[in-house]
Amino acid sequence: MTADIPYTSQYVTTQSFVSRAKFNVSKGKSVGRSFLERIEKNIIEVVASNELCINYEFKDVIDLQIPVELSYLRTAYEKSQYILELENDWDENGALSYKLETWIKSINFIHEFSLIIFRDFKRKIISPKIYHGPSQSIDILLENNKYSLLINIPPDSDLGIYYGKDKVGNSSKGEINLNKINYALIPIAFNF
Amino acid sequence: MNANSSQNIPAPFPVEVIDDDQKLFYRIHRNNIDHDIVDRKEKIRPVAFDPKPSPHSVQMSVNWEKYSSAEATRLSAPKPELNGVLSFISGKIRISPVNLNVTHSPTQRTNRSHSHIHDVLSKKNDPEIRLLLRDSCEWEIDVN
Fold first, then answer.
1. Any domain includes B27
2. A35: Cβ–Cβ under 8 A, 6 or more apart, which residues?
3. What is the extent of the structural domain holding B126?
4. CB distance B55–A141 less than 8 Å?
């Protein structure tokens, strides 16, 4: 915890999201038990005590609080909702539609990652572009004029993969256990 | 008359070597473009470089400029009006950092230009090769 910003123990990822996700599991929608357990363990405790938050809600499946400094995340999340509107054969080449569960997993991941960068580095993550990916996966692209980081969230497993590179030959790639994320191993994608 | 007569059935197209300076045309569906972005390269969503038919394919189909054109490639789509066309220089694909094989693979008697970029996804949904291919391509025909 840093000295510069006074922190309280407000929850950023809300309990209501967890409870609603649980509700969906009980209704037969497969969000994944380990996924829920991780959220509960990993709920982020820190927002500056004088921090204002805005809300991002989607139907009855997502309810997130976003610090006002990161309000652009809400725009990114809203834009990504187009993924859920893609129907089978959206490319006229047989591509399949996308699962709500994969999209929730992706939003939760990038939200948590953003908040950790905000908390630990006091920096704003690059505005994420959340796109449909190959084979019903979801791509999260963090890109500025210096480097690109592409994270892929799969529909059928909890092993994400990422690749990052800059314009001068540096690169990094790896895997992310979405049930037990070690954020220290993922390139921190903020504007230097 | 013999149905297999060589007079009635054209010979298969021979497989040729694609030189490094040759262009390869690749269709891009409008759903794979972020129309909110101005930068012509960054507006290409990385999913555009996805071998078809997914999920088991590992090679991308392209058309060799020797026997095709950007417009002919666009017109080969089920709905051409929903597609643009990108191109790659085969030599740039073959060298680092992309390092993929390019071969001529003519469709028997129908598409002499048909070629493959091989091993595009060595790992499922590999983000590395998709970003590198996006860096390597150029626009030929845009789509709104």
1. yes
2. A21, A105, A108, A158, A178, A179
3. 23-141
4. no
Rounded Cα distance between A100 and A97, Å, is: 10
Q: What is the pTM of this model?
A: 0.83
Q: Do B54 and A134 touch (CB under 8 A)?
A: yes
Neighbour count for residue A139 (Cβ, 10 Å): 23
Q: How many domains does chain B contain in total?
A: 1
Q: Is A90 helix (H, G, I), strand (E, B) or coil?
A: coil
- For an interface test with B, give the residue of A85, A126, A135, A157 to mutate (most B CBs within 10 A): A135
Whether residue B108 lies inside any domain: the answer is yes
Does residue A20 carry a pLDDT above 60? Answer: no
A58 residue type, one letter: F
Query: Taking residues B81-89, what's their average pLDDT?
Result: 98
- Asked if B125 lies within 8 A of A154 by C-beta distance, the reply is yes
CB atoms within 10 A of CB A55: 10
Please, is A175 exposed, middle or buried when counting C-beta atoms within 10 Å of its C-beta (0-12, 13-18, 19+)?
Answer: exposed
